[in-house]
Amino acid sequence: MALIALIVLVLFIGLILLGVYNRLVSLRQNVNQGEADIDAQLRMRNDLIPNLVETVKGYAAHEKSTLDAVIAARNSAMTANGPAAQAAAEGQLSGALKNLFALAENYPDLKANSNFQELQKQLTYTEEMLAAARRAYNSVVADYNGAIEHFPAVLFAGMLGFKPRAFHRLSEAEAVTMGQPPAVKF
C-alpha cells in the first residue's frame, strides 16, 4: 500500500512538473516572439531611413552633418544587442530623425515632395507598430517573469533553465523628452 501511495505521489509531482515546464516553455516562446516582432519593426524602420535620407539629400546637400548623424544612428541601432542596448541606440536614432524632420521644415519644396511625405507617413506608421510591439513584448515578459516566480514553478524554474527576462525600457534620451510637451506648428 505504501508503494502505491509513493508511486501516486511521484506521478502527481511528475504531472505538476510537466505542466509547469510546458507552461513556462510556452511563455518563453511568447517572449521570443515578442523580441522577433520588435526586430521586424526595427528592420522595417531601418530599411525606410536610407530612402528618407536620399530624398532629403536631393534638397539639402549642404546639411550633411544631420544626414550623417541619422545614418550613424541607424547603423548603431542595427548592431545593438539586447533590450537595453537597443533602447539606447533607438533613442539616438529617434533624436537624429527628429533633427531630420526639423531640417525638412526649412525646405518647403521637400515638405511638399510626395516621396518625402510617403516615406514620412510610412516611418510614422512603423514607429506606431514598433511601440505596439514593445508594449506586447513587455506584457509577455511580465507574464513569463510572473510565471517563473509563482509556486510551484519557482521550485523548478531555475533548475529547468528558465531565467527572468528584461523589460524593454526607454533610453535616457527618450525618457528626457517624455516629460516635454510636443511641438505643434500650424
Key features of this structure:
186 residues; mainly alpha; rod-shaped; disordered C terminus
General description of the model:
The protein is an all-alpha fold. It is built from seven helices and no strands. The longest helix is centred in the first third of the chain and has 58 residues. It starts with a helix and ends in an 8-residue tail after the last helix. The C terminus is likely disordered.
Can I get a quick summary?
With 186 residues, the chain is an all-alpha fold. It contains seven helices and no strands. It has helices spanning 2-59, 64-79, 83-105, 108-112, 114-149, 153-156, 172-178.
Secondary structure tally, helices: 7
Instruction: Please indicate the percent range of residues in DSSP E strands (runs of 2 or more).
Output: under 5%
The sequence of SSEs as H and E is HHHHHHH
Q: Which oligomeric form is depicted? A: single chain
Mean pLDDT: 80
Number of strands: 0
Low-confidence parts? 182-186
Major sheet: none
User: Percent of residues in helical segments?
Assistant: over 70%
Task: Find the structural class using helix and strand composition.
Answer: mainly alpha
* Dominant shape: rod-shaped
N-C termini distance: 84 Å
Radius of gyration, Cα only, in angstroms? 24 Å
Topology (elements, then pairings):
Layout: H1 2-59, H2 64-79, H3 83-105, H4 108-112, H5 114-149, H6 153-156, H7 172-178
Helix pairs in contact: 1-2, 1-5, 2-3
